[in-house]
Amino acid sequence: MHFMHKYTYLINGVYLLTETPRYNLQEVNLPFNIFKDSIPLATSYIRWSDDGQTFGHSLYIQESEIVARAKREGFQVVASFIEEAKSAYHIPAQKRVQMQNMKQFILNNENVKAVIFYEESRITRLIEDFVLYVLGPIKEARPNFKVYSTKIEGEWNENNPYVQARLSFAHEESVEKSRRASDYHTSVVNSSKPERPGSRNPYGYSLTTKDNTIETNENKTIVILIFYLYSYGYSDRKIANLLNEAEIPPPSIDAKGWNDSTIRYILNNRWYIGDLAWFTRTSFDNSKKKPEEDIFLFKNHHEPLIGANLWNVTQFFRNYKQNKDHMDSPFILRDLIYCHECKEKLVTRNSTPAKSKKKYMYYCCPSCKKKISSEKIHESIFADFSLRWGRELKYYEKQTERILNRWKKGLEQKINDLNENLEKLKYLLSTLDKNNEYYLELKEIFEMQIHSTSKELQEYHNTREQIDILSKDEMQSELIGRFKQDIHRYSNEEKRAIFLLAIEKIGVNFSKDNHIRIDYRLTPYVEIEDLMKQIGIESA
């Protein structure tokens, strides 16, 4: 494990081994082998909680105290393990990378006689995790292994009441800090004028000096570019690679470049459409988003950077890609083609031999086993698509406007009906006879119906509001305008993205000389259109 420690420094007669350079110190050569030579060797564990401390004095303060203690205890070498910007309250000792590296280093090197840390809160904020899962296995293998804290004279003993009190205090301090932070965030978002609680500004925004609010900066164009690229079918990783190739600096100064998780975070951030959303994660360890009804959400909180149509398209593709869809696949019509007779979705098959220059790729029916060449059906679809949009684009724009209005009226009627039904359910619940032997069962049934109806009602309200915003967004013309461009000039992912927005399904009748029928969508709003069909609201 010695390969981890690239740098050696001599400080007051003690050799410090570390992974990261100390620019204020002169590097030296270690005059002995820490694995083979019998020398007094200790490890040190250093930790701080957030990025703000990374460039502060935390490392210097902890390290200088540890080296001084090592010299007092007679150690010649200290192998340092540093956990940068990691919470000991949210991340237990056994799950911290450097803590585990240190544990393995100790167990693999019999020369290591001790570990030294600054004080208890550096190793744990959870009282027992360090003792049970790190120190326990070490002492089981090395009963004479020693532990030192720079704040306690003599050895650090986990069974000492004073040490246990210090561990408890470190835990209670974190609990109180967490509670105060949560209370502050809740009070800020629940105020009469909800604000974004103090945290790192979203990429593309800076804090103003005049009134302490945030406003867009020069990076806003990068945010818009990211959304545009994704709306054309590009993956998170491909967007990150394009930004790296263009040498655009990533949001974090510590990052080595853009990565797919950074792109994903930007695309999921509702701040860019003018909403303030808070407490959205399932938990500290689980970044999965909570359901919308469980988060603090204030819509139209500020001026949006991303228009409603662009946001709608990107979120449709985010939901669609959860099935691990590869948008750059040569099978650009996958999931859209069906067998007319079997009603089955066609699957893809690439039968191209390894060294063949010609491609043998097919869409195949899993039931009747009939197939059609991808090249043949692509040519037919491209020709029909180009002819349709060259002829009908202006009509399509007007039709979209009319359909959106029909959907709004249909939703208003559904909302009125649901409100009436909800009132009836509440009335019937209030009139239940508590002496009825089935009272509890009936009460539960009514409560479930009320909950289900309320949830359905909220979905319809949200959809109607979404339609209002989409119909007013100027980007609607740009979105529809994509269809009239020469489809052959688009890349595979761009073609696939456009077809998913424009085509509902393609039927192939193998019994009639592979006759192809294309059912185009009425609007580019796929998820809303599907919902309208599902709840029986007419579009025409």
Describe the structure in your own words.
The longest helix has 57 residues, at 374-430. Helix 7 packs across helix 8. The protein has helices at 58-72, 97-108, 120-123, 129-141, 161-189, 220-231, 236-245, 260-268, 308-320, 374-430, 439-472, 475-481, 492-502, 526-534, and strands at residues 7-11, 14-18, 41-47, 77-83, 112-117, 146-149, 205-207, 214-216, 276-278, 296-298, 337-339, 347-350, 361-364, 371-373, 503-509, 515-520. Strand 15 (503-509) and strand 16 (515-520) form a beta hairpin. It is an alpha/beta fold and 540 residues long. It folds into 3 domains: 2-171, Resolvase, N-terminal catalytic domain (Rossmann fold), CATH 3.40.50; 219-323, Alpha-Beta Complex (Hect, E3 ligase catalytic domain fold); 337-534, no CATH class. It is 44% helix and 14% strand. The protein has 14 helices and 16 strands. The strands form 5 sheets. A 6-stranded mixed β-sheet has the order 1-2-4-3-5-6, sandwiched between helices. Strands 11-15-16 form a 3-stranded mixed β-sheet. It has a 3-stranded antiparallel β-sheet with strand order 12-13-14. This is Recombinase domain-containing protein. One of its GO terms (molecular function) is DNA strand exchange activity.
